[in-house]
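Here is an idea for our session: we take a single protein and study its fold together. Start from the sequence, derive the backbone structure tokens from it, and show both lines together. Once you have written the record down, we can walk along the chain together:
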Amino acid sequence: MSSLQSLREKLQAASVEFQKVQLDLSNAVEARQKLDAQLSENELVKKEFAVLTPKNIIYKQIGPVLVKQDQAEAKTTVDTRLNFIRGEITRIEKQLKDIEIVSEKKKSEIVEIQTAIQQHSQLSA
């Protein structure tokens, strides 16, 4: 009977680990969605900047105050932000793939343990 108990303990531990992996996956997906929203917002700003003339004035909100900002500086800031966001998206994509691999391994481990428990139960019956 201790073999069956050992299998059940392994199953419990693997299930807990799988839940943690699923939480990590959920957090990574949420981060990816936020980055997508930021990317879209910044691309929209970049498109708006493309139609500006040198006479147009750009203001940057700092707290409750709008501060005049140089066009070139504003465009550079947006380009830098876009590059950063794209880099973060690449990083999160890799993280998602890694988490999915771990998730699949944990699923397989759980199935193996469940199969072993079923076989043990059938032999005992």
